[in-house]
What we know:
The protein is mostly helical. α3 packs antiparallel against α4. It has helices at about 5-15, 20-25, 35-50, 55-75, and strands at about 5, 30-35, 75-80. It has one domain: Rossmann fold (3-Layer(aba) Sandwich). The model has no long low-confidence stretch (mean pLDDT about 90).
Amino acid sequence: MPYVLDTNAIRAFLDRDIRVVARLSTIDPAAIFVTIVSFEETTRGQDATLNRQLDEARLIRAYADLSRALAYFASVNVLAYDVNSGAS
Length: 88
């Protein structure tokens, strides 16, 4: 059974929410899908964080978060936005 994760579920996973991590660990990675829109929303939020005035520790954490997001999106199936994706 395929699962399409929304941005909130992805964010919870990336933030290491124990319930979400536990649930996703029971699903075959080949059955997990995310959308390119969720990728854009996630990276836009991380970009906003990186563009703030951050002390060194927070900057290091922000780049670590971005790296974790990159690895995650590279490991799952990303659904394209196409003519069938738009809202009516």
